Amino acid sequence: MKIAVIGAGYVGLTIGAVFAKFGNTVYIVDVDKYKIDMLTAGEVPIFEPGLTEIFQGAIKEKNVSFTTELSSALDNSQFYFIAVGTPQTEEGEFDLSFVKQVAKEIGKELNTLSSNSEHKIIVIKSTVPPGTNRLVKEMISSQITVPNIRFSVVSNPEFLKEGMAIKDFGSPDRIVIGAESEVARDMMEQLYHPFALKRDKIIFMKPINAELTKVIANSCLATKISFINEAANICDAFDGDILEVREGVCSDSRIGWDFYFPSVGYGGSCFPKDIRGLMSISKMRGYYPKILQSVDEVNNVQKLYLAKKIDKFYSDHGGLSGKTIAIWGLSFKPRTDDIRESAAIFTIQHLLSKGAKVRAYDPKAMKNMEKEFGDKVKFCGSKYEATQGADGLALLTEWDTFKAPDFQELKSMLNIAVIFDGRNLYDPGMVKSLGFTYCGIGRG
Ligand SMILES: NC(=O)c1ccc[n+]([C@@H]2O[C@H](COP(=O)([O-])OP(=O)(O)OC[C@H]3O[C@@H](n4cnc5c(N)ncnc54)[C@H](O)[C@@H]3O)[C@@H](O)[C@H]2O)c1
Predict the structure, then answer these.
(1) 24: CA distance to ligand 1 center in Å?
(2) Is 316 exposed, middle or buried (0-12, 13-18, 19+ CB in 10 A)?
(3) Is 270 noted as a catalytic residue in this protein?
(4) Which one from 235, 250, 270, 380 is the annotated catalytic residue?
(5) Beta-carbon neighbour count of residue 341 at 10 Å?
(6) CATH of the domain at 13
(7) 234 lies in a domain?
């Protein structure tokens, strides 16, 4: 199959790589020339495990090419995947300007086709509010003046997780396809056939329901996180331990374990904006979503929960101003360099505003965080270097390298032996027995 993927971000690059790996011919398009030049030179502009290797293989097999020219990619393709960003506006709505721009350009391009050209499938991969499929279809149609141009607009939301993106896309739990025409359903089924060889994973539905599925699924996951975080904060109020409580609660099979782990809140480019976008569009339809409002509010508080514990600790140790805090972990989750809405951003902003200095280390996200803070933060070459001469350590992302540090070495580096554990990685009893003060999330 011949596929154009528009948008070379975390989603576009992943789906482009996997489609190419399966033998399709893939054209990846982006307006960002710097990204396209890097990709053409065999370098991947983001960190996602396994992506570079797949692209190197696909380039060798001549299954993938990269361009800033939309028209050349579209001319050669049957499927047009829209994978551009849909960030949040200041009002908390989905910003559809990139999607609309692409829809308009696709419409213009379809207009140049002859009337007997093949049926084109335009697939919305970006996360969009319900109703976008109809909007995109109307925008494309409004550009077309030539008779008998055949096309369908399909909603095919993406559920991948950064850090696990290749596995999640190549071997998904489900493939949701919102398509109205039979020809679109058949073509999508053929395209996804290699993804569902062992069991049928394709769920066909109306486009509006596919759009709703994505934003409601993300809202559900965010709700689980805010729920366990609120439970952790209640445990703190009673000097309880959320991890013991979690065992007692989550071993009920009706509740389960997944996505119930207390932390400094959820971040990333998806949950925060998707939940706010869904709230906003629901209100426009006259429904005020109370649970989602609370989920967002709890998360906003949680992102600064560790920072507030840091404040409290130093108020008894001469104040935070002038202290140096080491930060381990900057990305919003491990195995990615993505820092969008990361708890580290909020925590560092808070520390700097209180007059503290920050020394930071992250295996992959330092370049991105440097763009955010410049020389206001000292970025270090290793996790221990970050702790050198610091007055405490705050752990914000659960990268593997932070899971079992040499605590003796750590203690020898720190002026004040205190660990603020935003991911509950460490055993408080063990850490305290080594002479550290320990502050976790919901652990008393
Ligand atoms: N990142 C995730 O984990 C994830 C998971 C599922 C769904 N999504 C959704 O997928 C979409 C893309 O997310 P992302 O994280 O890959 O975004 P991203 O910001 O990493 O990448 C978007 C890319 O689109 C490009 N772009 C913008 N306008 C363009 C245009 N007119 N033509 C060509 N390229 C253009 C940008 O230059 C950028 O490279 C969003 O709607 C997001 O909500 C993301």
Answers:
(1) 21
(2) exposed
(3) yes
(4) 270
(5) 20
(6) 3.40.50.720
(7) yes
